[in-house]
Amino acid sequence: ADRCDLFRRQLKFNRNHQNLVSRRGLCSRFYKPNFNFFFVFKTFKSEHDDWMNTFMIWHSEAHHLRYGVFNGKENDNVKSYTQMIWATTYEIGCGVALHHMGMFNTYYVCYYGPGGNVIGELPYKKGEPATECGKYGKSHNYPELCG
């Protein structure tokens, strides 16, 4: 079973997550997606999703990153960050699920496609931003990114 199938089975109780994975099609593309997963356990139901905190936690791994070829084990402490910034990823789908079993469990997941963290590859090329955008050109809204 691929990661998407395994993850769907792990979150059977949550229809919203299954819909994110199935309807958005990230797991049915010609590439294999990768994902970041974060969960919070609280004794109370939160009124708002805490995406900013989730992304900040994933981003906080950046200070551990030593730029170079991704090799797996040595990169365990930066995998969420490198997945977020992986240069060849161009589709992202995120969702949140709340499940109550004594505590309020909030699950945050983002699927990235094509998946990054590829052993033997660099997360991105060093140099001037958005200089190898090819047919897409630079983004009008974010000129340091490809469009």
UniProtKB/TrEMBL annotation:
It comes from Meganyctiphanes norvegica (Northern krill). This is SCP domain-containing protein. Residues 1-120 form the SCP domain. Pfam families: CAP.
